[in-house]
Amino acid sequence: MDQVSLVIILFAALLIPLVMAKFKINSLPTAVMEIIVGIILGPSLLNIVTMTTSISQLSTIGVIVLLFLSGLEIDFSLFKKRRTALTPLEQKQAGNLPKYSPVRLSVYAYSTVIILSLLLAAAFKVSGLFSDFWLATILFGTISLGIVIAALKEKELLSKAFGQTILLISVFGELIPMMGLTLYASIFGSNSQSLWLLLLILAVAALLLLRFKPFFNFYQNINKSTTQLDIRLAFFLIVTMVTVAETVGAENILGAFVAGIVLKLLQPSESTRERLDSIGYGFFIPIFFISTGVDLNLRTILTSGKTLLLIPLFFVAYMVAKLGGYWVLKLRFKQANAIAGTALTATTMTMVLAVLRVAKSMKTITSDQSGAFLLAALLTCIVSPLIFNKFYSAEKEDLVKTAVHFIGANLSTVPVAQQLRKGWYDVKMYTNHPQNYETYHAQAPVQLMENFSAEQLEAQGVFDADILVLGHMDAERNYTLAKAAKDYGVKRIIVRFEDRNVLNEHEDELRDMGIEVYNTPEANITLLRSLIESPSTLLMLQDTENSIYEVRVVNHLYTNVQIKNLQFAKDITISEVIRNRKIIVPNGNTLIQYGDRLIFTGSKQDAPRIRQALATAN
To answer: Per the database record, which ranges form the RCK C-terminal domain (predicted)?
Structure first.
């Protein structure tokens, strides 16, 4: 019976995404559908799947892997001090939005959750509906990070400010109740370890971080397909931290979450994260969600009158506890998205399961109360994503054009700026020559500056650009400003060097810093050689309908996909794939990998949309 139940669960896990795709069910995350299917398959309805020892063990591994991957999703760069949450250009195009970073918003929002959870727990205690004040506070303050991540991933929002804000609120909603549960069990439990032993979790995490910090710097040189050292390291971290957490009386999910944070700080490659996602979301995590539904016996739970009374009350409490986040999110995001984000953070299931499991073992909660908390949590997982998908729409700041700033207005840069302005680019030019300003300011958006010192450029917002082109004739000035812009944090810097001697002196240094350099005579030579060797090059360059584009693939929807299976394969022609600085001549069977740079031709109408799709991180 063990094997039959497991086969049914795995078949259901395979079938659910296919059915959702077939019938275009986009309003609910896959994880929620898996819980619902588990209820259908379990004793609540069909009763063809039972919870066995092996399935319970796999489910436990599933929640551990889920919390590990949740820790791996945190973007710690958000915690670095920044000059502004938005650049001046983004502020202007986004309607002068307040400068609230995702970190500040998430701290404010979850602070309101804690306050409301305390008030709700007090109300339940005074009314006599649920007397354990601290347990209720922990339960009302939980947020299901796994479901939130799944919803944000499906909307491709994890790389955007809104997505990172909701993610961080959810991280607090998982981590703080987790710590609260550990303290609750340590104080009120009879077999718990001393509280100071909990510090061992952080001590071991710090030791592992220091010990393996150089790991990803050298493992690529010795890694083979039969060793998969990065995956072995990941599972070593999981098992170590889970063992330490259980040894000191904490929950295993706390150890798993900390292990994910440790691996994230070790800065693994995207391929490592993709393979861990494949293992987790491809096997263990679906088993956890489906078995969660199987474990809910609605026939037993709904027979109690008190349970039927508590279910809507607990559901309302889960939702009300998150309402304060609405006014916090409105500080930066539009009203509809504030509603959507507030609704999504009201989802709770993973931590509720963990909390109730501990509470049952401590005998501080009845089975009726536990069932009511679980069903109310399930309702949030159904209702909240529906509200989120109904109200969410792209923020203005997510639709900002790529900012390209040119330093130097001359015959080489002005025509390029004129062409770029016709596309999805916001172009500004700067010159320190009054004569050039008089010549070009009517043809392009040129601003006159007294000098090009790094301090003045920074003060005037010139470095607040996605792409900075240093097209000045003074090569030494370009070199100095390129390094200053890199220190400031400009994403892409393109530098012109007409003096080959200066380029020879600094080329290796600039390339090592990730700065792109070019030399006009060499570019002309390369173009002429291309015309001789490939006459069609001229046709592509002169074509007014089509053009050549380059894009770096960071959208996981298009990674590990053959070129012939891309949904827009008929609209573009991919001529080259650049992978690890090596050029690959592709064919239809070539597999696109994360981080690949694609050189392709396509129509000027379709190409920008395709580039944006490929370059949108999720």
So the answer is: 536-616
569 vs 587: CA distance, rounded Å: 11
Give every strand in the sheet of 582-584, ordered side by side: 546-552, 597-603, 572-579, 582-584
- In one letter, which amino acid is 459? A
Whether the CB-CB separation of 572 and 558 falls below 8 Å is answered with no
Q: Sorting pLDDT into bands at 50, 70 and 90, what band is 94?
A: very low
Q: Which of these, 42, 46, 11, 75, lies nearest to 286 by C-alpha position? A: 11
Structural tokens at position 310? 């508590």
Q: What is the mean pLDDT of residues 146-162?
A: 78
pLDDT at 80: 54
**pLDDT at position 325:** 94
Lowest-confidence pick of 78-87, 319-328, 412-421: 78-87
Say whether pTM exceeds 0.70. Answer: no
Cβ–Cβ under 8 Å, residues 256 and 60: no
SS (H, E, C) 595-616: CCEEEEEEECCCHHHHHHHHHC
Each residue of 39-64: pLDDT tens digit? 999 998 999 998 888 898 999 899 89
Cα pseudo-dihedral 400, 405, 409, 410, rounded to 10: -90
- The C-alpha atoms of residue 552 and residue 13 are separated, in whole angstroms, by 32
Given a cut of 80, whether residue 478 has pLDDT beyond it is: yes
DSSP state of 557: G
Let me know how long the chain is: 618
